[in-house]
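tool_call: predict_structure(chain=1)
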Amino acid sequence: MPTKIVRVQVKQTNGYRTECVAGKHHLVIDQPATAGGTDAGPSPLEYQLMALGGCIAAIGRLIANQRRLAVRGFEMEISGPINTDALLGKSSPDRVGYQSLEVRVKVDADMSHEEKERYLYEIEARCPISENLQNPTPVRIVVVE
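tool_result:
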């Protein structure tokens, strides 16, 4: 099985501001000012939703290119409820992550509704971010010196 190691560097620099480097790309993760941050960038939760949308769009383009489909583009709204009590350390019976996610996708293409549904089904089956969100992925957090 061919594999690729994906790496990013992340460094929290000031308050909640977190600098991220992925190859030659520099991003900032922060919290809204109302939550103690400076609102210098999206929150980690927002980045997770953007990563899902970006993956759906990228895989959609890949499939369109492979199958020579005339797909002009995508528009998405992605949302989900999250239990803020648990992440703030308060006792809660609910999990700390999103309870569910909904991705509302508008496919700009000359396809019937049924064709778009089949297309999105194939995209979802091939999207690694969606697959990681829907299935447990082992995460190991270790201390280094």
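agent: The radius of gyration is 18 Å. Proceeding to next step.
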